Amino acid sequence: MGKKDTDKKLGRFSTILEIITNLGQILTWVLGVGSAYVLNIQTKPIVVPGIDITLDLGFQFALLISAMLGYVHFLQKFWEKNKEGLHLSYSFLDFSFWDLPRLKQPLLLIPIVIGLAISIQVSIKSYWLLSILGVILILISGFIYYRFSYHLSPQRRYEALYNLWEDDPEWFERWSKRITKQMDLYIGVRVRDLREAGNSYSQEDTLEINYALRKYFEKFEFEEDLVLTYIDDLHYQHPYHSYTSDDMVLMKRKNLDLREPIKEN
Fold first, then answer.
1. Where are the alpha helices (DSSP H) in 95-126?
2. Is 248 helix (H, G, I), strand (E, B) or coil?
3. Cα(228)–Cα(220) distance, integer angstroms
4. How far apart are CA 131 and CA 137, in angstroms?
5. Cys staple from 83: which of 28, 46, 88, 201, with CB 3.0 to 4.6 Å?
6. pLDDT digits (tens, 9 = 90+) for 27-70
7. If we measure between CA atoms, which residue out of 233, 230, 232, 229 comes closest to residue 253?
């Protein structure tokens, strides 16, 4: 038997085990939710014979919580296995409170809807159970609101841009050539020096230029003896100093102490 055949059999065996495990987790969830529902529709409380335990509302609610915890475990395994292939969020927290509410995997919400409906049915008969369910729903809604506020905020958009630029070597090479050319011709490189004349620039464009200057500085700081600072922090006699601009400037350290001659009246 060849190595490929052995690998195929091992792969199939692993797949079968995974299917069995998933079915077991789903069955556990169904039994928990189903048992809570069946107990809830009984007209008389059920007592376990021999040990005299009443399967009341508290027990039914505990079954629901246990079932939902089992489903959370299933979601965690699903996320770990499929986060790369299905392009899911890089954290389970974001997967739960950002991906699922946006219906990225809508079928995964079916057990949650069923569990919520039965939870309301069970809890509505008891004020304290309804209060607990309300607190749980408020906490979940709060987490969803927090993740949506973060992902839809401008800051998140900027972070996504930073990651895009960081992972693109051609982007840095293009900006590196422009910065190097400017450094060879002038005292230093300001943000305004990298803007093309006649073009309108947005906040994102300015962020890109600033980020390019920072990346260039991080890579060549010691090799080229560079300084990265703000224009308004320069000495007031420096040729690039300005009180009205907060642009960044990148220059050789030797150019940091340049002074313009004071004009005599």
1. 110-123
2. strand
3. 11
4. 10
5. 88
6. 566 655 666 655 555 555 555 455 555 566 777 787 788 888 88
7. 229
- The tokens of 206 are what? 């300015």
Contacts of 193 (CB under 8 A, 6+ apart): 182, 186
Contact 220, 212 (CB under 8 A): no
pLDDT tens for residues 224-265? 889 998 888 888 888 888 877 778 889 998 888 877 654 444
CB 105 within 8 A of CB 74: no
Distances (CA, A) of 217 to 42, 188, 203, 223, 251: 72, 12, 21, 10, 9
- Which parts of 116-208 are beta strand (E)? 188-190
In the chain, where the domains are located: 3-152, 169-255
CA atoms within 13 A on the CB side of 155: 4
Is residue 156 scored above 90 in pLDDT? no
Q: What are the C-alpha distances in Å from 262 to residues 52, 91, 176, 239?
A: 99, 59, 35, 12
Taking only the tens place, the pLDDT of each residue in 116-150 is 888 888 888 778 888 888 999 999 999 999 988 88
pTM comes to 0.57
Beta bridge partners of 251: 188, 227
Q: Identify which has the larger pLDDT, 97 or 19.
A: 97
